[in-house]
Amino acid sequence: MQRQTCILLLFVSLFSISLSASIASLADLKKQVIDGKIPSRGVNLGGWLVAEKWMTGGSPAWNGVPDDIANKGEYSAMKYLGHEKGDPQFDEHRRTFITEQDFKEISEAGMNTVRLPVGYWIVGFDHTWGSDVDSWKVYAPGGLNYLDKAIREWGPAHNILVLISFHAAKGSQNGNDNSSPEVPGEADWFGYKENVNNSLDAVEFLAARYKDEAAFLGKFFLS
Ligand SMILES: *[C@@H]1O[C@H](CO)[C@@H](O)[C@H](O)[C@H]1NC(C)=O
Fold first, then answer.
1. Which terminus of the chain is more exposed, N or C, with fewer CB under 10 A?
2. Which positions carry the signal peptide feature in this UniProt record (predicted)?
3. Residue 108 burial (CB < 10 Å; 0-12/13-18/19+)?
4. Structural domain boundaries of the chain?
5. How far is residue 221 from each of residues 52, 59, 83, 131, 165, measured CA to CA in Å?
6. Alpha-carbon distance 154 to 146, whole Å?
7. Which has the higher per-residue pLDDT, 220 or 213?
8. How high is the pLDDT of residue 11?
9. Mutate which of 123, 197, 203 to test ligand 1's pocket (most atoms within 8 Å of Cβ)?
């Protein structure tokens, strides 16, 4: 009995040593990357939280969606599928397209950073005005859980820093599939103050949510 307790304690203390070591080194890594002492070596995880057909052709997200619709982005695909079919398909996509195993392999390959494109709908609210305050509701909910996992669990577990790319703005900044336009081909972001306001609210929300996380390196805006 005593011996088992001893082994258990040893295990617990080794576990906590390795846990604190990895957290300390992640914070240190972040500082050194920000100070320019260590280069940020990274990879882009495109197509995951903003699904783009050309990068994710075999994904369950697009099951039953004709190519000409899927090629217009996530909004068009979800509008076509509806929540009953689309939510489980997009959830399966998010659950399987990028997993903790990818973070492990990225780390083993000698990299220290990932870039994660997200869309305005990930925050799950729109406090603006105008005729389009419900467009975020067309998307499958729950994307934020995966961003949480990446920043709060997988990054710290594998010493990977995360750059969020605010990649798809309400109204669309370029009309292309990567910004998930409601009217494919139209870029209606800058013409409408409410869309710009929505972007600022979303970016503020993400900054407040992750500012104290060791793995959160920062954000790109519309890049
Ligand atoms: C956006 O508009 C809402 C509602 O008018 C306001 O509460 C919010 O502060 C605005 N956000 C920004 C970043 O200006």
1. N
2. 1-20
3. exposed
4. 2-221
5. 18, 27, 28, 25, 6
6. 10
7. 213
8. 43
9. 197
Q: Name the CATH topology of 2-221.
A: TIM Barrel (3.20.20)
Q: At 45, which amino acid appears?
A: L
The secondary element (H helix, E strand) that includes residue 19 is helix 2-34
Of 2-11, 136-145, 161-170, least confident by mean pLDDT is 2-11
CA of 44 to the centre of ligand 1 (A): 31
- Which residue's C-alpha comes closest to atom 14 of ligand 1? 197
The confidence score (pLDDT) of residue 180 equals 83
pLDDT at res. 60: 97
pLDDT score, position 223: 62
Average pLDDT of the residues in 202-212: 97
What is the CB < 6 Å shell around ligand 1? Answer: 127-128, 197, 200-201
Contact by Cβ (8 Å): 221, 152: no
Query: ∠ CA(214), CA(103), CA(167), 5° rounding?
Result: 75
Q: What residue owns the CA closest to ligand 1's atom 10? A: 197
User: In the sheet that 216-221 helps form, which strands lie side by side, from edge to edge?
Assistant: 42-44, 113-119, 161-168, 216-221
- Phi and psi at residue 39, in whole multiples of 5°? -70, 145
Q: CA torsion sign, 47 to 53 to 55 to 60? A: positive
User: Distance between CA 127 and CA 192 in Å, rounded?
Assistant: 14
